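SUBJECT: A protein chain and its fold
Encoding: whole-number codes for local backbone shapes
Chain under study, with its fold:
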Amino acid sequence: MKVLLVQSYLGGSEPPIYPLGLSCISSLLYEHEVKVFDTNISENPFKDIQDIVIEFSPDIIGISLRNIDSTNKRRVVFYYDYLKKTLDVVKALSNAKIIIGGSGFSMFAKEIMKDEPRIDFGIFLEGEITFPKLLQNLNRPEKVKSVFYRREGEIIFSGPGGQVDLNTVSFPDRNLIPLSNYKSYRDAIGIETKRGCILDCIYCIYGFLNGKELRSRDPIRVVDEIETLVKNYGFERFTFVDSVFNIPKKHAEMICNEIIGRGIKVSWSAWFNEKELSRDFVELVRDAGCDNIILSPDGFSEIVLKRLGKNITKKDIIKSYNILKGLDGFEVGYNFFKNPPSQSFLAFISLIIFYIKAKLQMKGRVHFEFNSLRIEPHTRLYRIAIEEGFVKEGANLLYPNYYTNPRTRYIEKFFNALLKLKKK
């Protein structure tokens, strides 16, 4: 069969990211003729989709919906609308079966299947095993686990399937989309070292998408992929796409030591957990090429951190900061929520003082993001939002809803005004 895989459009408002999920899927479709198209590297994405569909005449069109929206309250970009426009284009030209997947779809699978009857099949959660099996069973989708399908107007789910063993699947196929298209974008190329998250943050969807148990790749295989990226494609920069790179810390250390041992000269970024940062470890990741340490403490008081379900304390944030400010050779990024549950005026003032202090001491090496809390399904924040009246039980969260602590709404308004002024 002819299979066209499409990365759904994100509106051109942010740098493109290499479609890692589709490259993983395409590496397993060796029995089929496959094309992959990332709309986000096109100047005219919908015209290009049109041309590809006409020229290639696919039997199957698989669409990866990575995100539903930008989650940024100042200027929300609703990516789901672009999915609808993509369906408008392909359905006007082709009778190909439409299969949708990706984390954005999995979060809202039932809602999207109901909202978009033009979608024939939905891949729920991980697709490396499910997608190839579905292509073999298009007339009998009930035989394949983790699939949403339609029968006589009814949406049916075939039941949950198993998780992927990351040490048995092929490396991502990076040949169908030229990597050169992404070379000018920082952190566009992703490397995966594990799936799953053992943390329990109340707002986070990773535990639902990838499971609560860690599935780690063999560090040798991880660095084999990095070395291939450098030697075969001339890439010397990437990002680790794990939700947290340094949990477990030993696994991260093994990867870093393997990079250093092979003498691979690369630069990379990753998300880190403050509790697992020590001076020796930071020096190790720096020696292995890390030049951007990203942290997401999210809150800046003990009560807020506890309410958010974080595994860290304010002391951990300060201790790790003191380590990072004393070492050169990398940038540091901090992510905080503007007005999380249990926020207080005192916590807000403490955060502002920390921000000013960090900017004075680290100058251009440190960066801050202040974000709003989007209410996602399958999270504990969803239950809190129901209890506090932000959403109703069973509400369709496909269209954005945000949480802000009702007792300190003025803090969110202050941040929004400040960020708006900064943007001008």
About this structure: Residues 98 and 254 are 41 Å apart (CA to CA).
